[in-house]
Amino acid sequence: MTTAARARRTRRPAAHGYRSVAQQRARIPADAALLLIGVSFVLPLLWLLLASLDSGAGHQTRLPEELSLANFSAIMTTGLLFQPLWNSLVLSAGTAAVTLVAAVLAAYPLSRYQSRFNRPFMYTILFGTCLPITAIMVPVYGLFVQLRLLDSMPATIFFLATTALPMAIWMTKNFMDAVPVSLEEAAWVDGASGLTALRTIVLPLMRQGLGVVFIFVFIQAWGNFFVPFVLLLSEARQPAAVSIFSFFGQHGAVAYGQLAAFSILYSLPVLALYVIVAKGAGSSFAMSGAVKG
């Protein structure tokens, strides 16, 4: 080995080491920012967990002096927990089901038939998603009063489904575009109608996409506070997103421990739904083998 080659071999680790140190120093601000963002998300969840197990919980994050399930026991009543959760389940599942059916029927012609009105219609739908729901609640409230639909759970479900429909149509059409048309054409050759091909070919293949749309609408309805607060007047029909106000007393008094316990139980159905749908639709888009050969 010549002297020059030995010198280059000696210098390479040093240069590589210099670049590594420089890269590590450049990553420090990014790592610090990510750490700060992570702490911002973890601290509220940590307070939620610790406060739910602390009978004397306050607004500060602290370790409980004694672990206790008293907060969970205090809210395990029909009026505080079970009835509001049932109302939330009916409201959210009903809204998601109505929205999903309407979105599939609206997205199918947009996905399968070409028209010069498709693009303007899709842009109109996209514009509809930008309108804040609070801007239309006053005329909606007046309409519900005239039609005597106030405090009606089915009417509230249909109104929530209407507000979620634009984004649901947009998402469903994109998922439906991924299903090959040739599969439907084979069904048509065998004598299947368009609705039969949609029900037996398209929908099973886009099961994962339908699950995504269902979860998206369900979560929106589950956490919606303003619409049920305005349209559902009686306490027996109010969902958990509204009844959570019962933990905020007058003159600033807040039952922090019970509020934390209620929030944890309030979040469980959404997490369970996500896990169930994620496990049940793992390989729904494995369609490549269906169009080969």
Overview of this protein structure:
By secondary structure, the protein is mostly helical. Helices cover 71% and strands 0% of the residues. It has twelve helices and no strands. Helix 4 (118-128) packs across helix 6 (153-177), helix 6 (153-177) packs antiparallel against helix 9 (207-222) and helix 9 runs antiparallel to helix 12. The longest helix has 50 residues, at 3-52. The protein is globular. The termini are far apart.
What's this model, at a glance?
By secondary structure, the chain is mainly α. It contains twelve helices and no strands.
SSE topology:
Layout: H1 3-52, H2 70-75, H3 78-112, H4 118-128, H5 137-146, H6 153-177, H7 181-189, H8 194-205, H9 207-222, H10 226-231, H11 240-243, H12 256-280
What brief labels describe this structure?
single chain; 293 residues; mainly alpha; 12 helices; disordered C terminus
β-sheet strand percentage = under 5%
Rg over alpha carbons: 27 Å
Question: What is the count of DSSP helices, taking H or I runs of 4+ residues?
Answer: 12
Largest sheet: number of strands, sense, barrel closure? none
